[in-house]
ScyD/ScyE family protein
Amino acid sequence: MNFKSPLLGSLVAAFLLTGCEDHRIPAVQTIQVTPFASGLAGPIGLEKDAGGHIWVAEAGSGQNDGRISMLTPDGKAHPVITGFDSEVIMGGELNGLNHILFADGVLYILGAHSKLYKANVVGFKPGDTPMLAKDLPVEDMQQFILDYNFAQDTQDTHLYNMTVGPNGDLYFTDAGANALIRRTKAGVWSVFAVIPGITNPTPVGPPFVESVPTGIVFDGQKFLVSTLLGFPFPANASIIYQVDQAGAVSVYQGGFTSLVDINLTTDPGALVVQHGVFGAMGFAPNTGQIRRVANNGSSVAVDGLNLPTDLVQMDAHTYYVSGLDGNVQKVTY
């Protein structure tokens, strides 16, 4: 599953966060959203490094111009790796870079066509000559996943996001195959779990809606997986699934709309990102949200975001959120 939406302006707003369960954050807290970086080409994935810099995967414009950039505290983007595949595919959707992850001293990068790149970016300084994607080690997993005998075969694969799980293995969401894929530290790949779809709750579209798994986190005991849902992208029907270490899938919490990311936080619960509400002209502008998820339900933390794609926590009071309008915004409270 890919995302393509019109470019629109940035957002500056303040919102209320309620229902926190930890004394480190008051029950009612003012949250401010301010511009941080702009002019990015389809920012999809965000990550932070040990030095306090934000890194962004830019999907590009469809001209094989995907890149990995470092964002310095002044909001300026410094290209680190350039030349990743970026193409416009059927339906006008953009197929390019997805998410990134620092692990074991390596920057892992999910590229188009379910490719996993590995880059050593230790020592990079703003102003250094960017590396080229073609020079990076890459594991091309497209055919492996396409050849797998899924019970409901979509004949598609789109490795979208990843996390570190037990024993340091990597676990990926595949938004095309509707599955979780595992890669051991030794480099052995396998299908870990299949994420089920739902019966279409609307009169529009097919009778069955694919899950389209997006975000994934591991809390030390289980995985939590957010889902977008395929066409017609029904509201209030997306599910967060929990997956145990044996690959058994069950519902953690439902009632969400078009989720594209999930994050564990320093407070109890998690934060999820709602990409937007789907309407007659596609995902409507400024209908994105950040929602706080607790055991007893969820609530809106930030409203009115424009087509958000990812959220990363910098410290206890600072987050960054990317959007398909080319912006990264700073969220503070």
